[in-house]
Structure prediction request, 287 residues.
Amino acid sequence: MSEPRDEYLSVRGLRLHLLRWEGSGVPFVLLHGLASNARTWTAVGRALNQAGHAVVAVDQRGHGLSDKPASGYGFDEVTADLEALLETLGLSRRPILVGQSWGGNVVLDFAARYPDISCGLALVDGGFIELSARPGATWERVSEELKPPLLVGTPRAELAARLRQAHPDWSEEGIEATLANFETLPDGTVRPWLTLDRHLEILHALWEHHASQLYPRLRTPTLVVAAESGEAGWSDKRERVARAAASLPRARVVWFKQTAHDVHVHRPAALVRVMLDALADGFFGPC
Prediction:
């Protein structure tokens, strides 16, 4: 199959939405970033499935079509969600876990807590995020700088036009998947599925998260995919990626030049090739 099934599973008292492709090959589990959604992985999931792999992409709590509890957005809870999801799906032995941005930090944290479950990690422009390590950083400054734009009430058509203008080389499928970060209301306007208070709760969890302290604890081969997009803080990113590569027991770094932070949306085919190469050449080890 090349198109996913929409499914809902009850996990730890939550109803989680996921996209699922059946396959006999090594399973891939795909986690989106902050304020994103599972549909942004559609092109990646399809290509992995066409290569024979089982694939699952999930809307994490508070996001997309999954339940939105009032609390529980720290790493303790979201990694427990992932562990229970894998158990429920029968994938609790040797999947490859892929996380983008905040999702990369989630799978990194997961692998430190549950070292025997995954056979490989792919950190897609994430997993090396350490907000508190930025020079001169304070929570007040970071929370203000990274607060999401106020898009409630924006016409969906206007938001779509903005995305197409900002990302002229993204596919239409990628644009539509990104628009799925928002609920479309009856009047044609949008509001984020992830509320502002929950967004800030996750951001604060990232503020307190020290990824570099987890690197030496990992036993899982880790592919680090970093986007060279020319954004502010570029030199700091290079340093963080280099620190991860030096500290992880087994790491491979691949830089994507002239690529947006949403690597999986911007360059899905290239991302899939990198991951399948790591599997084929034995980097991920026995799966």
Notes: The radius of gyration is 18 Å. The longest strand covers residues 14-21. The mean pLDDT is 94.
